[in-house]
Design goal:
The structure is a homodimer of 339-residue chains. With 339 residues, chain A is of the alpha/beta class. The first copy, chain A, has a domain of 217 residues: Rossmann fold (3-Layer(aba) Sandwich), CATH 3.40.50.1000. In chain A, strands 1, 2, 3, 4, 5, 6, 7, 8 and 9 form a 9-stranded mixed β-sheet that branches. In chain A, 40% of the residues are buried. At the A-B interface, helix 9, strand 4, strand 5, helix 10 and helix 11 of A face helix 9, strand 4, strand 5, helix 10 and helix 11 of B.
Chain lengths: 339, 339
């Protein structure tokens, strides 16, 4: 005989069962595709498979959380680097802003070329000229003052082709990849040839990467007392170039551990990928290959910016991933989704 | 009429009530004093009060987690630095080990003095002699080889006074402080004049501070291919001295954020504390004051190692904390507890 109690129990069991269904569905619904801007295919699969094997306890490739170090180049890997590095746009804008205070620049190279609008001519004068431009616009002030200049500039400046703020020129699939790796216990470092002080004011907002996880090229600074208050003065002297063979040096100095995953896009990242590949255990090395002239740019072996030549050969020879921007990315920039 | 069901319900209520008591008691019991090796008093109170105010949401002094940066000197602040820096013991032991391969050292200074047992005489030859000793023992090898040398040495070497491994010469109250800060969302960096490559092999185990949160003095390294495998070679060239006015420079380069809490013990830490103090909002600056000749050492203004002179005056003038080792610490070293 079924009693009221039995009926209630049955109803209770049903509720429990329904609850479980809700819970299970709920769990499924809070785990949507973490990489929605990546098209399905071998590249996306290889990323997901790598993350799965290094994070699955008991897997022969399991890597403890503290050792899940991932390094990313910035220009051309996390945001656009064409038609010029954004930092160069900053430098050139700043030269124009400061020109009235420097009448001598009208007749002094490389400043004169910049002020005539001949950027190509200015850059053709070589590294020394480039360093002069950087020194004139980024030193002789405190680190806090430079931070404020960069922040101000980013709020106003627009990319010449896309008419977007430079911080919108980040690659949406890469931003998703950083978040996905972070959610899987990875600690992400930017390892860029760009200026460390130029990147730090905005990397946390743009990528979720805090200043202490940004490695870059740097000038020397000096501790001084100014009106009784300590400041760090940016000096017109180069400290370190975090590019090419400098990248493993920068990684060692700032991180002190070898990455297990590294993404770059040019020959300037080759040594970082070699250094990453040379460790024991599971590794993931990739170049972002710029193959999309329509949505971004297409360039590799012959480019003056972001040249990928030796790296392209080595990636193919060693089975590193080549992210085919055109094929692998459903969208490139965040604003693509809204168009 | 009480039914079986009622009785069961009552019993259930009692169990729930008992469970709650257990839970409440349990909660209380999992929060023992996080700083048991600190004696009660103004110093301990000031630490706990600072942590409370910067971590309490809604407090006017609240600091978001990413900005809870704490920096600690190492020698004399986290572990003993007398009668010599541990790194110097390493260097001297290494000179003796390598001597048979370098017969010329018997007649070349500063090596000859070291081999005669005249350490004082060797050190009296100045910074250049010191750098020669470091270069001879810590360069001309890969960073991985140096790491292995340090690890091997630490496993065998014993402190001359206490006959303990050097990694047991850490200050138990400071180890507790690091754990307490970490539990409260602080990110802890070591900022030491010692060699960055000398510290990284053991700071994670000794202090819970991972390699990427260690800032120190460094030599230059170079990326090379050796038998087709990439290595970083330690070169006999100084890169950076992370001491005195170098500490804010190192903090800026490696962290890129200003600390809100800093501990040092000597004038070599003064600028780090000044830099920390100069930020906005709540700050905590402290010197560990070596006042305990019996359990450790007593030294300040006149010491050749860890001299605290200007810093002592400035701490008193500005109300920074002076940790009185003798008065404030119930135990000094971890092995004190077992004696």
């Amino acid at each position: 005989m079924r009693t009221v109690h039995d009926v209630l129990s049955l109803r209770f069991m049903k509720l429990v069962a329904m609850g479980m269904v809700v819970l299970v569905t709920g769990c499924a619904s809070v785990q949507p595709d973490p990489l929605p801007s990546w098209n399905e295919g071998a590249t996306k699969q290889s990323i997901v498979a790598f993350v799965a094997k290094v994070t699955t306890p008991g897997s022969p490739d399991f890597v403890p959380v503290p050792e899940r170090i991932a390094t990313f180049d910035n220009d051309g890997t996390l945001w656009a680097e064409q038609p010029m590095y954004s930092q160069l746009f900053f430098v050139l804008d700043r030269i124009k802003t400061l020109a009235p205070q420097h009448p001598e620049w009208r007749t002094t190279e490389p400043f004169a070329s910049v002020l005539r609008g001949d950027v190509k001519g200015a850059l053709a004068q070589g590294d020394k000229a480039m360093l002069q431009l950087v020194a004139a616009t980024s030193t002789g002030m405190t680190t806090a003052e430079f931070d404020a200049l960069v922040t101000d500039w980013l709020a106003k400046a627009r990319h010449p082709r896309f008419d977007q703020p430079y911080t919108s020129m980040v690659y949406q699939p890469m931003v998703e990849l950083l978040a996905y790796l972070r959610a899987n216990g990875f600690k992400i470092f930017i390892v860029s040839g760009g200026g460390i002080e130029f990147m730090r004011p905005w990397t946390e907002k743009a990528y979720g990467v805090p200043p202490e996880q940004v490695v870059g090229s740097s000038g020397k600074t000096r501790f001084e007392m100014r009106d009784g208050k300590p400041v760090l003065m940016a000096l017109p002297a180069l400290d370190f170039i975090d590019d090419g063979p400098g990248k493993p040096v920068g990684i060692n100095l700032h991180i002190g551990r070898r990455p297990i995953l590294a993404f770059g896009n040019s020959d300037g990242d080759l040594q970082m990928l070699q250094w990453t590949a040379a460790g024991n255990g599971a590794r993931y090395m990739a170049f972002v290959h710029h193959t999309d002239a329509q949505r971004e740019w297409a360039y590799d072996r012959d480019s003056s910016i972001g040249k990928l030549d030796r790296g392209l050969d080595e990636a193919k020879a060693r089975g590193w991933t080549l992210v085919d921007m055109k094929k692998d990315w459903a969208v490139v920039f965040p604003f693509d989704r809204k168009r």
